[in-house]
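Hello support,

Our group uses your service weekly, and this is the first time we've seen a run hang past the timeout. The protein is DUF7144 domain-containing protein. I'm not sure whether the cause is the sequence or the server load. Input pasted verbatim:
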Amino acid sequence: MVHDSKTSTSNYDRSTREHSEGAVGVTVLAGTLMIMTGIFHAFQGFVALLNDTFYIVLPEYVLQFDITTWGWIHLILGVLVALAGGALFRGAVWARTVAVIMACVSMILSFAWMPFYPLWSLTIIALDVFIIWAVTVHGRDIVAD
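Update from on-call engineer: The timeout came from a worker crash unrelated to the input. Re-ran successfully.
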């Protein structure tokens, strides 16, 4: 691309930039993982709401909530994470911002849930780290129509 003195860098258009198909694939994977992570959180919430004795409660944990409270937290935030993942497919900056925020919330929630289901919590945290990386590094390659 030739740059002349009349063309300002502030007029740089997204359509003139080359898009990487691999980067688009990574972002689509991140959106899909967000939807799956949200559904996983919602399932955790349903299990906690329907059967309080399924999860083992540790006696001396800093964040001591009732399992029913955790169930509602997981259910509501799981739906929000899944919706943010769906919005990510539009490629809008606001969708990427919401996706990063919701992935961070999901990580914090999974960390707090760790005493109840440690392996599952670590899995969700790892997925959230990948989502944040993919959205921040490659998220701009999805073009919103």
